[in-house]
Write a structure and sequence with these properties.
Blueprint (H helix, E strand, L loop, with lengths): L1 E2 L8 E3 L7 E2 L4 H9 L3 H5 L3 E2 L1 E6 L2 E6 L6 E7 L2 E7 L2 H10 L12 E2 L4 E6 L9 E4 L12 H22 L6 E4 L4 H16 L7 E7 L4 H12 L6 E5 L7 H8 L4 H20 L5 E3 L4 H4 L13 H6 L3 H4 L15 H5 L1 H9 L3 E3 L5 H8 L3 H5 L3 H20 L11 H5 L2 H7 L5 H9 L4
Parallel strand pairs: 2-8, 12-13, 12-15, 13-14, 15-16
Antiparallel strand pairs: 1-2, 3-4, 5-6, 6-10, 7-8, 7-9, 10-11
């Protein structure tokens, strides 16, 4: 916990735990100095996943990558304003209860710091100050060739670079797990980590691929097929979880959100992490493939009535950031895109004491993906867009690791972890029930 060291320490408090940052190339203090410098190029040079806040005088500077959430709330005291910064809504609420200020609170009054921006706030009295947003990550678009082999090598090469930094940062006696479905994203992360461990002289026996199975969901068979084809099936561990242990209301409490797809994914991730913690009390490090769909724009456009292929391909990082902080559709409470949704992966891991890592969500990997000339490669054709992900990733994995990666038909994590009938029994239809339950948590 970080408390302001100014002359009026009661106007700001950070409840963030800096040890949850994964910064590869500088110290926490150096990263904080970059955030307050006013130089966006310095902030962009922070490598890893992070949430950073620092107060200078009456100004508070906040910045985060996709991989770690951060939100804030401005309370009113007799002595003046109090800015509280935390990962979670309930952390802010519980802190306010301890100060008997919780009657001012509603979850919708909290603000999520959007990924890839430095947010500057003035801690002053009424009226509340407007935040100032300054983008620190603005990748160049369409700057790669049309050669899929070259694109794949660049894309998975960037993934491997980030994974190598992560592996080197982990104590050599610690095991490494991958949340693994046998799909393109988790499969490529597993193969890259395995290849790197061999290259770096690390013991591959430290590595495991964990696959969730609820009532014999189809991912278990897919995971077996993936690793069997490569002669790597000894690394697979299927984690069987009974349907009774999968509870979407628990997941709503954990991710503090009600968006259907993210909640469904989080519900399964929570069940998996809970069972892993029971089986492996000392395990710390887990990697996942979250962000791969966003990077290569691999979501069924027809499922979202607000989207067309032109909006997807014309808007920079639409799936990572949503419509942008200057747009009407941007949610101040939640941010947008994966900037909002990544809590589906982060929060279940954090709750159960794991240190999660999502290399596809790192700026250095996203930057390569944004350089792909999607329009030229697809000619605005949706099926061509969906086919690109398997082509690019498998070619890149071959170039970087030498493995011929199996590519199966796309299936969301939550739909592969359980059978279709089980899924329908676990989850209600529509978002309204999720939203109502979430708001009931803070009913006065």
């Amino acid at each position: 916990m970080n408390v302001s060291n100014t002359a009026t320490p009661t106007d700001f408090i950070s409840l963030l735990d800096d040890s949850n940052n994964v910064i590869f190339n500088m110290t926490s203090d150096e990263a904080a100095e970059a955030v307050i410098s006013g130089n966006t190029a310095r902030v962009r040079r922070i490598e890893g996943q992070f949430a950073i806040v620092k107060k200078v005088g009456q100004q508070v500077f906040l910045a985060r990558s996709i991989g770690r959430p951060m939100r804030y709330f401005l309370a009113k005291q007799v002595s003046g304003p109090l800015l509280i910064v935390a990962e979670r809504i309930d952390e802010i609420y519980n802190f306010l209860k301890g100060m008997d200020l919780h009657h001012q609170f509603h979850p919708s009054y909290t603000r999520m710091v959007p990924a890839h921006y430095v947010v500057r706030l003035e801690v002053i009295g009424c009226p509340d100050p407007n935040p100032v947003y300054t983008r620190f990550f603005e990748p160049k678009r369409n700057n790669l060739t049309h050669d899929l082999d070259e694109i794949g090598k660049a894309y998975i090469g960037a993934l491997a670079n980030e994974c190598q930094k992560w592996l080197i940062s982990i104590p050599e006696n610690e095991p490494v797990g991958v949340l693994f479905s046998g799909g393109i994203d988790s499969g490529s992360v597993f193969l890259v980590l395995y290849s790197l461990m061999l290259k770096l002289g690390m013991s591959p026996q430290r590595l495991k691929a964990f696959t969730l199975s609820v009532n014999n969901g189809p991912d278990a068979e897919q995971a077996h097929q993936f690793l069997d084809q490569l002669g790597l099936s000894l690394f697979l561990e299927v984690i069987d979880v009974p349907q009774s242990a999968v509870n979407y209301k628990e997941a709503i409490n954990v991710i503090e959100d009600y968006k259907s797809r993210d909640l469904e994914s989080a519900t399964m991730a929570l069940a998996l992490c809970k069972q892993l913690r029971s089986l492996y009390p000392e395990w710390k490090y887990l990697a996942d493939g979250d962000g791969g769909d966003e990077n290569l724009k691999d979501y069924p456009i027809a499922e979202n009535t607000e989207l067309t292929i032109r909006s997807v391909l014309n808007n920079m990082m639409l799936y990572q950031e949503g419509w942008g902080v200057d747009k009407i559709k941007h949610s101040l409470t939640y941010s947008g895109g994966q900037s909002r949704g990544h809590v589906r992966s982060y929060a279940p891991c954090r709750l159960h004491g794991f240190k999660g890592f999502s290399p596809y969500a790192l700026p250095n990997v996203i930057e390569v993906a944004e350089g792909i000339p999607f329009i030229q490669l697809t000619d605005w054709n949706e099926e061509s867009l969906y086919a690109l992900k398997g082509e690019i990733t498998s070619r890149g994995v071959k170039a970087i690791t030498g493995f011929d990666m199996p590519v199966f038909e796309k299936r969301r994590f939550q739909l592969g972890a359980a059978t279709e009938s089980t899924f329908k029994q676990i989850f209600p239809q529509g978002e309204a029930e999720y939203r109502a339950y979430f708001h009931s948590l803070y009913a006065r």
